[in-house]
Amino acid sequence: MNILFLCVANSARSQIAEGLAKAMLGSNHNIHSAGSIPSGKVHPNAKDTMMDINIDISKQYSKSINELDNFFMDNLDYVITLCAEEVCPILNNKAKKIHWPNPDPDNKLHSDLQLRTSFQNTRNNISSLIKDFKISILNGE
Question: What's the CA gap between 27 and 23, in Å, rounded?
Answer without folding.
Answer: 8
